Amino acid sequence: MCGIVGYIGARSALPILVDGIKSLEYRGYDSAGLALVTAQGVWSQRAVGRVINLEAKIGENRPESTLGLCHTRWATHGGVTEANAHPHTDCKRNIWLCHNGIIENFKELKDELKKTGHTFRSETDTEVIAHLIEEIRNKDNGLPFEEAVRVALMRLKGTYGIVALDRRDPKKLVAARNFSPLLLGLGKGEYIVASDASAVLKHTRDVVYLQDGDMAVLTPSSHTISDLKNNPRERTSIALDWSPEEAKKDGYPHFMLKEIFAQPEAIENSIRGRLIPKDGLAKLGGLAGMEEKLRVARRIIITACGTAYLAGRVGEYLFEEYASMPTRIDLASELRYRKPIFQEGDVMLVLSQSGETADTLAALAEAKQKGVLTLGIVNAVGSSIARETDAGVYQHIGPEIGVASTKAFTSQVAILALMTMLLGRSRDMSVVTGARIADDLQSIPNLIRKILQQSAHIKTIAKKYQKTKNFLYLGRKYNYPVALEGALKLKEISYAHAEGYSAGEMKHGPIAMIDKNFPSICVAPSDSVYEKNISNIQEVKARGGPVIAIATEGDKEIAELADDVIFIPPVREMLSPLLTVIPLQLFAYHFGVLRGHDVDKPRNLAKSVTVE
Ligand code: AGP
């Protein structure tokens, strides 16, 4: 996720900006840059890699300035290059800005601006904004800078957190937010604009969080906040009592909890601009040109590791049921050593949050070696897997910092649902079905928000079973992978023994383990296999086993049967993993914390397993 810091005031901007951007390094990035307004013009430096590379380029010649911007880039459009690093500027190098987010209509705006003579220096969507403001000021040079920014922002489709300046207005800094967080640090005779509070706490604890649609105009002594139609918006400041470390977690005790709670926005970011609900279609720019190959594919082989593999298991059900596509799911660490029989028309789909997992890379290489078309669903832009696959879809969820994967799982399942629509609608899925899936997918973030409100209830259940050493997780069909994922989460962060199992398989062995000290967590929403799940719950209860059920709101039968129930809202079966996994993530989180573990950095684990 990009990091932004802007400064306007009476002090030297440079050290405040660099120090601030260092506080944002934890967000993950691949390049950095800054721009300072000086008496001689704008002084700018950019560097690929870490902030220390930028500091090396700044060197000793540290110009005096009281107005500037600084940025760490998490690439979305355009490779990791100095030219693509922010800040970006216009033709005449008057307007400079940094941006976090995705401008969906940047290509049409860029073409429009090129026609009026603008020349571009980068591949980014961000640079278009600087030229758009320039074009607006060219047409009406009496227009104040902030008004030109306002007009430009109204042309944008997509998300932004932006801070901008015009060297011809050296007493002004403009900040605006639409989905990408941005706050104002209120200092004495100065303001620090930043992506999160960790970059401002050294200077002030008084902050104003901008809301979507806000635009702030800052001078060293004042600020105003309004909407894009210049209607004033009241935003009260709050006094933060966080440490810088807590600020990085947005006040959450752990990154894992922050990321569990970030899943509604993560899914919104993963599906944003990728649905055409009225036509029941999904559009995935990263797969442009692959549609026909996918439509006629003989089989899709999904492969990944860990949680990504379990998201892929959901994809197997989706592709078969809703795209009538023969699909096989394989652990990458197994596929790479087997003798997989690839045939004409096979397509491999790899999933990876980090894009650097060794086993997944090896399985990918094996498929490429055999001439198989390879696609990816990856979060880390420009990562090895993103580069090695023939095409792919980025998750756009920002870095996942907690070692135990949470938002990456739901994002991958959401993107698999988009791919299912893309595939299905090119084969035998009707527009009605496609449209219904699109509508249901768009409702998922708010349904997750509803489940997240049960965190305290789930913590109570975790406390009740705090001393338990063994758990069985049971699920069927779309929720069989969820049972496996729930068990993996518990193992990873609490080190307890948790076994995920197909509920239908329970009577073929695991039921022998069940007794009063061996609870079962049953994922049993109201779906096509509900009755079967009820039978499993009865079998467990008959043997004295406690049952924690994940069930659909209003299900009285399970409420009577199970010892504890966590309810989820009703949801279409194919999308139910996006909801049923949330209680399991929260249960594992609270259970791990109650056991006194560092849930962000569990023992023996790495965030990205780049070794075999
Ligand atoms: C999941 O919680 C684990 N951190 C781990 O299983 C992870 O999902 C796996 O290593 C795959 O990582 P990737 O998505 O970056 O390829």
UniProtKB/TrEMBL annotation:
SUPFAM superfamilies: N-terminal nucleophile aminohydrolases (Ntn hydrolases), SIS domain. It catalyses: D-fructose 6-phosphate + L-glutamine = D-glucosamine 6-phosphate + L-glutamate. One of its GO terms (cellular component) is cytosol. The active site is at C2, K607. Residues 290-430, 461-602 form the SIS domain. Pfam families: GATase_6, SIS. It is an enzyme of class 2 (transferase). The keyword Methyltransferase does not apply. The keyword Cytoplasm applies. It is found in: Cytoplasm. Gene3D superfamilies: Glucose-6-phosphate isomerase like protein, domain 1, Glutamine Phosphoribosylpyrophosphate, subunit 1, domain 1. InterPro entries: GATase_2_dom, GFAT, GFAT_N, GlmS/AgaS_SIS, GlmS/FrlB_SIS, Ntn_hydrolases_N, SIS_dom, SIS_dom_sf. GO terms for biological process: carbohydrate metabolic process; fructose 6-phosphate metabolic process; protein N-linked glycosylation; UDP-N-acetylglucosamine metabolic process. Residues 2-221 form the Glutamine amidotransferase type-2 domain. CDD domains: GFAT, SIS_GlmS_GlmD_1, SIS_GlmS_GlmD_2. Keywords: Aminotransferase, Cytoplasm, Glutamine amidotransferase, Repeat, Transferase. Its EC number is 2.6.1.16. One of its GO terms (molecular function) is glutamine-fructose-6-phosphate transaminase (isomerizing) activity. Homodimer. Catalyzes the first step in hexosamine metabolism, converting fructose-6P into glucosamine-6P using glutamine as a nitrogen source. This is Glutamine--fructose-6-phosphate aminotransferase [isomerizing].
